[in-house]
Amino acid sequence: MYQNILVIDLAFIGDIILVTPAVRALHESFPDARITMLTVPLTEPVARMNPYVDEVLVYDKKGREKGLLGMLRMAARLRKYRFDLAVCMNFAPRGAAVAWLARIPSRYGYDAQHSGLFLTRTAPAERTHPQHETQNQLGFMRSFGITTQDTSLALRIPADVERSFAEKRAAFQLAKEDYLVICPCGRVRRRNLSVETTAAFIRDFLKTRDEIPVYLIGGNQDRAYLTEIAQSAELEERHILAGTFTLQEVALLLCSAAAMVSVDTGPAHIAQAVHCPTVEIFSTGDPRIWGPQGAHDIVLAEARDPVTGALPETDCIRSIPAEDILTAVQGIMEKTQKG
């Protein structure tokens, strides 16, 4: 029926990865169709690793295509592709409005925030109980008769990324496999793991597993934070990988890791897609919706006030002891090494 499909997802890294099963459902329902994904500049590299996407277009909604005029320019670009179906994966109405302006004849999306004004078919936005985001998006697709039996995550890493990663790994003298990756910070400060806790965990881990290298990852903006951790934990500077790798190269880094410790941020979702065993540490997010689902994954979440549901009044995650993180990582490594 449909031959030229546009998937609109203008959210964050995790959303782009967790939408993979839903895009697989589209591919299986319309195997001869060409699937294009419209996303934002930050998530373009991740969208390009979706094995069911043929092309990625970028909507710079905060830059050159900002505001109503930018939306009109984006719609004009999309009209040239002659899409016959747009699937809007977010609650926000922007994607639906752009699809309408682009005159795409069939437009599916959530009935939320007045998006229904721009859509030809809608799915309910209400979620009656917490379930994983992959299941939420698959439920959305089922509203339109689009299904799949395969709910797994997957990434397709380009050959040129494999080459660039190999060059960087050699230049930084990184281990080739069986190392521990730690991502203690992300875009939301309250979700960061404290410097003190992270450093204490690293020191304790290396006392028992000194043969396993430890690497700290983050963006360029995280270098000072990661450097403070490394200095406290007595890690060599070359173990600080702040801005060293692209998002696509991070996927390769995690492919060969023994395990990962991460807060609730993009690289944690990348780890799930490449099946890297993960200890994911939560504060503001809900692990039932955003948490890892691998056989060996472990979630550690800050305890909330039983009456108000409030988190501890701190600027980052401080209530989870380093000992709990160490126990979780050791448990993962014992199981995976036996397996």
Protein model, in words:
The protein has 339 residues and is an alpha/beta fold. Helices cover 37% and strands 16% of the residues. It folds into two domains: 4-142, 3-Layer(aba) Sandwich (Rossmann fold), CATH 3.40.50; 161-338, Rossmann fold, CATH 3.40.50.2000. It has helices at 13-18, 20-29, 44-47, 67-79, 94-101, 133-142, 159-171, 195-208, 223-233, 247-255, 266-273, 287-290, 322-338, and strands at 4-8, 34-39, 55-58, 85-88, 106-111, 121-124, 180-183, 214-218, 240-242, 259-263, 278-282, 298-301. The chain has a six-stranded parallel beta sheet with strand order 3-2-1-4-5-6.
Concise summary:
The protein is built from 13 helices and twelve strands. It has 339 residues and is an alpha/beta fold.
Name of the top-level CATH class of the largest domain: Alpha Beta
Compute the CA-based radius of gyration.
Answer: 21 Å
Order of strands across the biggest sheet? 3-2-1-4-5-6
**Number of domains in the coordinates?**
2
Helix-strand blueprint:
Layout: E1 4-8, H1 13-18, H2 20-29, E2 34-39, H3 44-47, E3 55-58, H4 67-79, E4 85-88, H5 94-101, E5 106-111, E6 121-124, H6 133-142, H7 159-171, E7 180-183, H8 195-208, E8 214-218, H9 223-233, E9 240-242, H10 247-255, E10 259-263, H11 266-273, E11 278-282, H12 287-290, E12 298-301, H13 322-338
Parallel strand pairs: 1-2, 1-4, 2-3, 4-5, 5-6, 7-8, 7-10, 8-9, 10-11, 11-12
